[in-house]
Amino acid sequence: MNLYAKLQQRAAAGQPLRVGMIGAGKFGSMYLSQVPRTPGVHMVGIADLSPDRAKAALRNVGWKEEAFSATSLEQAAKQGNTAIIDNGMALITSPHVDIIIDATGNPAIGIAHVLACCEHKKHIVMVNVEADALAGPLLKRRADEAGIVYTLAYGDQPALICEMVDWARAAGFSVVAAGKGTKYLPSYHASTPETVWQHYGLTPEEAQRGGMNAQMFNSFLDGTKSAIEMASVANATGLAAPSGLRFPAVGVDDLARILKPRSDGGILDVRGQVEVISSVERDTRPVFRDLRWGVYVTFAADSDYVARCFKEYGLLTDPSGQYSSMYKPYHLIGLELGISVASAGVRAESTGAPVCWNGDVVATAKRDLAAGEMLDGEGGFTVYGKLLPAKESLALGGLPLGLAHGVKLVKPVKAGAAVGWSDVAFDADAPAVRFRREMERVFGD
Question: Are strands 150-152 and 123-126 parallel, antiparallel or unpaired?
Answer without folding.
Answer: parallel
